[in-house]
Amino acid sequence: MLQVYTGNGKGKTTAAIGLAIRALGAGHRVYLMQFMKSLAYSEQKILAGFPALTLRTTGKPFFIAEEGMLTKEQRAAWGEDIVVFPKGEPPKDYCDLLEAGLEKAKRAAESAAYDLVILDEVNVALFFGLIRRDALESFLAALPAKTELVCTGRNAPDWLIARADLVTEMQEIRHYYTKGIPARKGIEN
Question: How far does CA 176 lie from the centroid of its chain?
């Protein structure tokens, strides 16, 4: 089955990690590739300790945005921690890095050594053009029939949603971030 967790609400990665824990409890093997993330998140410390879970990350330690997505104030607040690029022209080095990560995940999935494969934030990578649609379609075509796949991230493309067996949209109704409360260790980070 192909599962997609998308939407603007909090909880997509958290839901995927919950499923990973459930799969591990059932004796399954899990491969988790996190796109656009480095080893800086609290959950990674515990996940790396599970012998039946392989955790990989690919991405740079900064955020990205297309021109016009952020106000001047938002851009100033991010400072050096964000790279802004023209629409449809993402940084080539970032694209190469993420596509190499997808290829690594594809080889792991093709090995049939994993029962559950999670591509965390792959939807965002697709949205920004950091991963090409044909690259993910090649991944889907190579996925063994008995392997469960979860794709997380905001802005899941329509073609992926149409292909999915399960789609969950996390809807933000209220978030304390709008009151200026930053990500908190152990809760969002």
Answer: 22
